[in-house]
Amino acid sequence: MAFYKKSWFKYMKNFIIGVGASLVMIGALGKINSEPWGGPAITIGLVTEACLFLMLGILPPEKDYYWEKLYPGLDNYHSNIASLTAGDMPADLSRPLNGEVVEAQLDGMLNELQTLSKSIGSLKALQEVDFSETSNQLKTMGNFYSRMSDAMSTLTEKVEDTKVYQQQLGALNKNLTSLNSVYGNILNAYNQGPRV
Known about the structure:
Elements: H1 7-32, H2 38-58, H3 67-70, H4 99-127, H5 134-191
Helix pairs in contact: 1-2
């Protein structure tokens, strides 16, 4: 794209034209009032304007778009506008344009664009997040869960061992109860034995 079509150049061109025109007017006012600075000010302004008019004469003109050929009646405020490429006009477009309806629709579109802009901003912020440490954190979490799983397996084995130990203690307790009973019977028999 040529430099003269870029927005910064168009802005600077308009800015310099405005400044040059204001210098010409201020210089003319100073000259009319016979102020000592009026002559130099009008000279600077006229030279600036002459350079700008020379530049505008050298640069090609902006492209003209004839929108009324694509949208017949565009130059008529009360016309029913439909694109030539649109085919038959829908029923809701056959009535004249209502400024309030158009404004409401444009407001709705503006709100949607603002929402879209916020969403894109959020996505951009997400894109800028540094995920370089995430890999290490995931590995650390994987190691933690692996160790936790091993500990749970060991704990399950210990619970099984504890159950077996409790069963064995229960059997030993029964045996001791039986042994105590036999010993008690022997003591009773010995105490009731023949007395001389």
